[in-house]
Recover the amino acids of this structure.
């Protein structure tokens, strides 16, 4: 019995190694990172309905260095935090519900195929990883970031003091 258990553990370990590295981790504590910028997309924006509402962008300390120098070191993580927009009163917009977060992680070796950036998404409620997006990130995310980000190494937003 004990041998069987050991064998099962050995097979599981080989399986994990064969499956490659772990998926991108949830960026715990990102709400306390530096706020980079905010934006609002209305219903007529081509990115609606997915990106309709308010978003805020956050950078961890390594990513903040990237915003300062234009070169993002490995370990940089950027979070795009998407919310619905509420209308709490006349001619006013406020924060509604969180819809999802989009995440970019810098690892030049692991994500060499997508310009050194890994992409993923966690959806609310439940902050569940959107596996289809992570598996298909080069097309779903990286294509647009690679082609259109204005000279900023796949990053669109800029940090304004
Ligand atoms: C059609 C183009 C396009 C696609 C596809 C796209 N993005 Fe973006 N992304 C943008 C733009 C434009 C911004 C800047 C928004 C702003 O500055 O307010 C942005 C911003 C971001 C940011 C903040 C860092 C930055 O570049 O400014 C992250 C993180 C991000 N996107 C992740 C993702 C992920 C993950 C996916 C795939 C699920 C994705 N994006 C798909 C255009 C795109």
């Amino acid at each position: 019995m004990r041998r069987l258990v050991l064998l099962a553990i050995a097979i599981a370990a080989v399986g994990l190694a064969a499956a490659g590295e772990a998926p991108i981790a949830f960026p715990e504590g990102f709400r306390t990172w530096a706020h980079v910028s905010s934006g609002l997309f209305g219903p007529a924006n081509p990115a609606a309905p997915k990106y309709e509402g308010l978003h805020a962008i956050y950078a961890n300390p390594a990513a903040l260095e990237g915003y300062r120098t234009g070169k993002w070191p490995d370990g940089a993580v950027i979070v795009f935090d998407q919310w619905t927009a509420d209308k709490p009163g006349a001619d006013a917009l406020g924060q509604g519900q969180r819809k999802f977060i989009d995440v970019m992680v810098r690892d030049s070796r692991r994500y060499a195929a997508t310009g050194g950036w890994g992409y993923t998404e966690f959806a609310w409620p439940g902050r569940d990883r959107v596996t289809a997006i992570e598996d298909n990130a080069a097309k779903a995310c990286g294509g647009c970031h690679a082609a259109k980000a204005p000279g900023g190494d796949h990053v669109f937003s800029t940090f304004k003091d």
Summary: Confidence is low (pLDDT under 50) at residues 9-19. The CA atoms of residues 36 and 159 lie 5 Å apart. The pocket of heme C is lined by residues 37, 39, 57, 78-80, 102-104, 119-121, 133, 140-141, 144-145, 149, 155-157 (CB under 6 Å). The radius of gyration is 19 Å.
